[in-house]
Amino acid sequence: MLHDCAVCRQRTDSGSAATERFIDDQITWPAPYRTAVNIVFNYQGNEAANTRVGSNGRVDYETYTEQEYGRTKGIARVLRVLRERDVKATFTICGAIAEHYPDTVLAIAADGHEIAGHGYHHEIATNLPKEQEREIFQTTLGLLRQLTGAPVTGWRSCHQSPHTPELVLEEGLKYNSNSFITDLPYLLTMGDRTGVEVVRQPYGDMRTYGRSGFGGDPDVAFAIWRSTFDSLHAESVDAPVYVPYSLHPFISGRPGRSDALAKLIDHIQGRDGVWLSTSDEVATAVLASASHPAGEPATPRETVDA
C-alpha cells in the first residue's frame, strides 16, 4: 500500500508544542465496522453576535436572534431527530450555555449524548494568550462537569490557537477536534502525554448553508453530505475510514433543514459496516489501535513507500 512519508512521520510545523503523529495504517474500528461516522453539534447561542457591532456599539440583532434559535427551538428539534433514529452524537457546548440555559444541556445529557467543551463565549481562540485560553478551558470544563456529573474528555475551539492542542493534553483531555488536515484521526503527543486529534471535514452546515448559515437549500446540503459519506464509505473496502459532520442546532435545527439531517442519518443507517459513534468513542478506538492508553507516550509505527 502506498504511503505519503510526510504523513507517515510526525509533524512538528503546526506551531504547537504538541507533536502530530499520523498512524493511518494502524487504525481499526470495533468489529465488524469499517466506516466510523461521527455527528457533532456545536451548541452555541448569541456569542458570535457580540462581536458584530455597528459604529454605535450595538449588537447586530438579526445575528443575535438567528443564533439564539438554537437554544429556543433548534436543540429540541435536533434531539428529536436523533432520538427517533437512536443515534448518539457529540455536542460541543459553550460554558455560557451551560451556565445560563442548563436545562437544554441536561436534556442533551439525558438522551445519552456526549458533551465536550467549546469555549465559554465561543471565543476566537487564535490570538488568545495561553493563560487566558487555559482559564476558558478550566471554566467551561468545570461548568459542564458540575452540571452533568459526567466526565468531559474533549474540546473544540472556534479557530484554535497554537496552544490549544497543548492545553488539551495539559488539562488531561482525551481529544482535540479542530484540524482539517487529513481524513483519519491521529495522535497528539507532548512529553509523556498522548491524546487524539479527532479531525473534521469542511462540509458542515455553515458551509453548505452559506458561511453564516443564513441561506442555502436543504436538498443541496443533503446531496453534499450524502456524497461525502458515499465516497468515503466506498473507500472503506480497502481500509477503515472516518466520516465526520460538524453541525449547529441554530442552523440544522430549523424546519426543512432538520429534514435534511434526518435523511442523511437514514441514508447512513441503510449502509453496511457503519459505526455511528461519538468523538470520545472514536478517540478511544484510535488509542486502542495505537496500543497506547491516554496519558502514556506513543511511538508511531515506521512505514515506507511500497
Automatic annotation (TrEMBL):
PROSITE patterns: NODB
Domain named NodB homology: residues: 58-277
Gene3D superfamilies, per database record: Glycoside hydrolase/deacetylase
InterPro entries associated with the record: Glyco_hydro/deAcase_b/a-brl, NODB_dom
PANTHER family, per the entry: POLYSACCHARIDE DEACETYLASE-RELATED
The name this protein goes by in its record: Polysaccharide deacetylase family protein
High-level lineage: Bacteria, Bacillati, Actinomycetota, Actinomycetes, Micromonosporales
